[in-house]
Amino acid sequence: MKRHVIRPSPISPPPNWLPLDNGAAHVMPREVWMAVFSRLSHQDLCVCMRVCRTWNRWCCDKQLWTRIDLNRCGSVTPLMLTGIIRRQPVSLDLSWTNISKKQLGWLITRLPRLRDLALAGCSWIAVSALCSSSCPLLRTLDVQWVEGLKDMQMRDLLSPPTDNRPGQADHRSRLRNVVELHLDGLDITDASLWLITRHMPLLSKLHLRYCHHVTDQSVHLLTEAATATRDSLTEVTLADCSQITDQSLAFFRRCGNIRHIDLRSCERVTREGCELFITEMSARVRFEQVEEKLLQRLN
């Protein structure tokens, strides 16, 4: 017996007019109401949704909910998950919540528009839901301070998914479109940075603060010849990385588009090394030290 995918019938479009008790329609059309709703906070929108069915549908329009922030909300309930799906956000922050792998897996398969996802402070078990072939093509991923996320887990996260369905011939990483990556506080080494150079060709902003096993060799891997990150990187944060030295500045000179290098609180980076970097780069572009060990490219 053949199997067929059964989908629910499409939702009818929202009404263009607000019906009144006398059967007539309100003088203001939907587009005017939407302009009003767009100026309200999400908390106010939730209040408006209780007024009537029409307002409920209008206030739930995905254009009003491009970003949903549940940072530190604590427990993620099934009602919250249903609300997120209904609103179809582009940006979703679930940092420091107790979301489970099952919940996150259920979410990402139903959020095709999702491009920015924050899971800082969550568990690796939950974050591992992103290893699925159903993970949307994200632009920004924040997994800083994720408990249990090390080199082996980074390999699973960046490698092409292994659960492709029949007919899915794409063997590239589902994170190949990421342009901004937050890895602060993770116990990762040069091995993870090598994986990033292989699977994230569009990476522009990389945050590695408090990654104490990241070394000058990590910067060498990011900037060596034939790596996409050599030309794609514009901002790198290595603040509080104890093993970074002035040698990393020599490697950063290879990057043609680098604009921001944060080496604050890196004890083995010297002021003299930063000044030498500025001097040697001045033939091509101008940099300044806006704070001690914080290098910024001048327009």
Automatic annotation (TrEMBL):
Gene3D superfamilies: 1.20.1280.50, Ribonuclease Inhibitor. It comes from the Eukaryota. Keywords: Metal-binding, Methyltransferase, Transferase, Ubl conjugation pathway. Coiled coil: none annotated. One of its GO terms (biological process) is methylation. Pfam families: DUF7885, F-box-like. Residues 28-68 form the F-box domain. GO terms for molecular function: metal ion binding; methyltransferase activity. This is Lysine-specific demethylase 2B. It comes from Fukomys damarensis.
